[in-house]
Write a structure and sequence with these properties.
Blueprint (H helix, E strand, L loop, with lengths): L1 E7 L15 H16 L6 E4 L3 H10 L5 E2 L8 H8 L6 H5 L1 H16 L10 H15 L6 E6 L1 H12 L5 H6 L7 E7 L2 E9 L16
Parallel strand pairs: 1-4, 2-3, 2-4
Antiparallel strand pairs: 1-5, 5-6
Helix pairs in contact: 1-2, 3-5
Length: 215
């Protein structure tokens, strides 16, 4: 069977004018996970990345080039979803305070999954459908080792789907995924099996423990 390693992007710039860029820590996390793969002797036959800046910067800092770009691996647009929930007037505390932000985002995702937020640019069904299309493309014939760089919500939904979890489990998994964590999926055709979730061996030593981040 072939294997796919899906990596969440490095730490982005929470609270900055442009969230969609890696922080200095994010670049270093990415360098370390790239080095960890090479130390294993793991070289991908196919590389796929979403089209978001933070995803592509992660891949570049990992030291990999010439990827396929598939927007199906892009994260849901949390700015848009929050704007749809609050009719364009998102409270400052939601965007500025981490605890409030993620509690509110969790509630917003649940509402979205239940068919709410009709003004959102993307429905929950559209989100899950494009992820499935991206996974199908990434795991098509022709590669035994596939490297994907994506985001927490996509990874959470991918894992929830593989293990047959209810939709709301996606967000629980989403909020657990660490920056540059590796999740390994074994696949054969359309069959997929989860073998590893949210692993960060490159950050597990005391030397790098302070670089463990979730957003």
């Amino acid at each position: 069977m072939a294997e796919m390693i899906v990596i969440r992007h490095g730490q982005a710039s929470f609270g900055a004018d442009n969230y969609d860029k890696l922080s200095d820590i994010g670049h270093e996390q990415s360098r370390l996970v790239g080095a960890a793969l090479r130390q294993r002797g793991w070289e991908p036959d196919r590389i796929v990345v979403g089209s978001l800046i933070r995803q592509m910067e992660t891949l570049n800092s990992m030291g990999f080039t010439d990827p396929e770009i598939h927007a199906g691996f892009n994260e849901y647009d949390f700015h848009n979803l929050l704007g749809a929930r609050f009719d364009g007037a998102v409270p400052d505390v939601v965007m500025g305070d981490r605890k409030t932000h993620f509690r509110t985002l969790r509630e917003t995702i649940f509402e979205w999954q239940d068919g709410g937020l009709p003004k959102a640019s993307e429905s929950w069904l559209t989100f899950t459908t494009r992820i499935e299309a991206a996974l199908t493309s990434a795991t098509r014939d022709g590669a035994e080792r596939v490297l994907v760089v994506s985001s927490g919500g996509v990874i959470g939904q991918t894992v929830a789907s593989i293990v047959g979890a209810p939709p709301k489990m996606m967000m629980t998994l989403n909020l657990q995924v660490k920056n540059t964590a590796m999740s390994k999926i074994i696949f054969a055709g359309q069959k997929r099996f989860l073998h590893e979730f949210n692993a960060t061996p490159h950050l597990d030593s005391l030397e790098f423990a302070q670089m463990l981040t979730y957003s």
